[in-house]
Specification:
Elements (H helix, E strand, L loop, with lengths): L1 H57 L7 H14 L77 H13 L1 H6 L7 H5 L9 H7 L15 H11 L2 E6 L8 E5 L4 E6 L21 H13 L8 E7 H6 L4 H5 L2 E2 L5 E3 L13 E2 L4 E8 L9 E5 L20 H6 L9 H15 L6 E5 L29 H6 L2 E2 H12 L7 H9 L10 H24 L7 E2 L4
Parallel strand pairs: 11-12
Antiparallel strand pairs: 1-2, 2-3, 3-8, 4-8, 5-6, 6-7, 9-10
Family: Belongs to the FAM20 family.
Pfam families: Fam20C
Main location: Golgi
């Protein structure tokens, strides 16, 4: 009886051993298969990604359908752009775009100042007679070195040819065209007298196309800014609404201005973790935006000037109510106040003098809304102002088609004006364009007013390409705007470059130097990016005149 039992036990042990051995083989085989499959998939995905990158770089935009062209443009300009510093990075525009626009930033090391450009008093733009030694287009090198001189900037001769061709075609039509550009004085039936104040002269000369006429025709704005610096202040009140502190200043002669105080030095950049809607407002950005707007020929920005106040005599002595309660002496014996607002109006973010001297920007008031009512428009490319949610234009490639179907962008000049605004905002890095205003008296076919630029000039080493969305999504720009931009680009690295012209204009302000040098360098760099965006639009268009529009403004 013992033998069968022993036989069964031995057989059971053999079966268990065979079963375990078979299980190990199956597990090993499955694991080996999974490893091989993983390696195959990784190699396949890498091959697809490499081929995709090669396609995006080499495929010509002009052979792509409109929707594909917009998608390619967004990938080139937005998705393939890093959010970090622009000092040492490239922009990924492909071989047509030279790296010469980086040569304005010459950093000698951490903590050292960047080199300033020479300033000259001349300022001329001549397409037919470019400056001596004007640079020619250069192919971009794949490897750059700090010791290798960068190639000269691209003069965009192809765009100059388009501008001149459109200008010649429309020359006769322009001569016969009667442009209607009335001012407020004409519509209100009011005439300027010899004893009219500078405030009245400025208000009554506001026209449909601009807030003030070209500088060579009238000096009212410059005289008014000088007047604003010297006028005694008789009353201050805190402006209601808004996210940060602003004061309404009333002068002895009855004029008014909006005061934005200095919060920190010119060199302080936007904090990396700050959203555009929580960033500090800069008084010098308001001043620089006015001068930049005038240099671009828009003249739609409210005149702004810098002024240094004695806080004890001109603010604390005139403050009342809740504003007065926010004044205090800091541990460093400086006079400070913080007012009341949505952001940065507390003791830890107080505005302090040195010890009681304080810089600020003074924006001249527009006419009262009773005499010249204004209409507020929601900007079509407004950001979501949400920490996680994106706006529709950021996810919809065909968003401009929707905008073109809506009044007033479906006809007239308004879409071109919005593109002008985006060019101005991009040059100064302003992402905070959520609304704009127009004067009702001029109708809907009037120029918008460029207001509120305090969040510009915050990131000198970063170019926020999404600000240009109206330009590259709609692929349209005003002829006169492009001509002005090309004129400054043609004079790059000369005293008549945009950065040097801006610096020269800002030198007349009492708070000069208004901008930190890297911000001036960024203006030239961003100018080339705007022109490259226009170039891509022209390349994919059947007719360049659909991109560069001459509306006789």
């Amino acid at each position: 009886m013992a033998c069968p039992s022993l036989y069964r036990a031995a057989r059971s042990s053999s079966l268990k051993f065979t079963t375990m051995k078979l299980r190990d083989r199956v597990i090993f085989s499955v694991a080996s298969f999974l490893v091989v499959l993983t390696i195959f998939l990784v190699l396949d995905i890498e091959t697809m990604l490499t081929g995709s990158r090669s396609f995006l770089v080499n495929y010509k935009v002009k052979n792509v359908q409109p929707s594909r062209g917009r998608h390619t443009f967004i990938q080139r300009h937005l998705q393939k752009t890093t959010n970090g510093s622009r000092e040492n990075g490239s922009y990924g525009f492909g071989p047509k775009y030279p790296s010469g626009y980086l040569n304005n930033i010459e950093s000698a090391g951490e903590g050292e100042k960047l080199k300033a450009k020479p300033i000259s008093s001349s300022n001329g733009i001549d397409y037919d007679n470019p400056p001596d030694g004007a640079p020619q287009p250069q192919l971009r090198s794949t490897h750059t070195s700090s010791t290798t001189p960068t190639p000269p900037p691209d003069p965009f001769n192809d765009l100059i040819a388009v501008v001149l061709k459109i200008e010649n075609v429309n020359l006769r039509a322009k001569q016969q065209y009667q442009h209607w550009n009335p001012n407020l004085g004409e519509l209100l039936g009011l005439e300027l007298r010899d004893d009219s104040s500078l405030w009245d002269r400025f208000h009554l000369q506001i026209a449909r196309d601009w807030l003030y006429p070209p500088q060579d025709r009238d000096a009212t704005v410059d005289l008014l800014l000088q007047h604003t610096v010297s006028q005694p202040i008789v009353k201050i009140t805190q402006k209601e609404g808004g996210t940060q502190l602003k004061l309404i200043i009333e002068f002895a002669d009855g004029g008014h201005a909006l005061f934005k105080p200095m919060r920190f030095s010119r060199e302080q950049q936007t904090l990396k973790n700050h959203f555009y809607f929580t960033d500090y407002e800069r008084h010098n950005a308001e001043i620089a935006a006015f001068h930049l707007d005038r240099l671009l020929g828009f003249r739609r920005s409210v005149p702004v000037v810098g002024r240094t106040l004695n806080m004890t005599k001109e603010l604390y002595a005139l403050a009342t109510g809740d504003l007065l309660k926010t004044f205090f002496i800091s541990p460093d014996n400086n006079l400070c106040f913080h007012g009341k607002c949505s952001y940065y109006c507390d003791t830890s973010h107080a505005i302090c003098g040195n010890p009681d001297l304080l810089e600020g920007s003074f924006a001249v008031f527009l006419p009262g809304k009773e005499a010249a009512p204004r209409k507020v428009w929601r900007h079509p490319w407004r950001r979501s102002y949400h920490k996680r949610r994106k706006a529709q234009w950021q996810v919809d490639e065909a968003y401009c088609d929707l905008v073109r179907d809506v009044h007033p962008y479906s006809e007239g000049r308004r879409l071109l004006d919005v593109v002008d605004m985006c060019v101005l905002d991009f040059l100064m890095g302003n992402m905070d364009r959520h609304h704009y205003e127009t004067f009702k008296m001029f109708g809907n076919n009037s120029a918008p007013i460029h207001l509120d630029h305090g969040r510009g000039f915050g990131k000198p080493f970063h170019d926020e390409l999404s600000i240009l969305a109206p330009l590259y999504q709609c692929c349209v720009i005003r002829h006169s705007t492009l001509k002005t931009l090309l004129g400054y680009q043609l004079h790059s690295n000369t005293p008549n470059s945009l950065s040097n012209s801006l610096n020269r204009s800002l030198s007349a302000d009492p708070l000069t130097p208004v901008l930190w040098q890297p911000h001036l360098d960024a203006v030239d760099r961003r100018l080339a990016l705007v022109l490259q965006a226009v170039r891509l639009c022209v390349e994919k268009a059947d007719d360049p005149s659909t991109v560069v529009v001459d509306d006789f403004h």
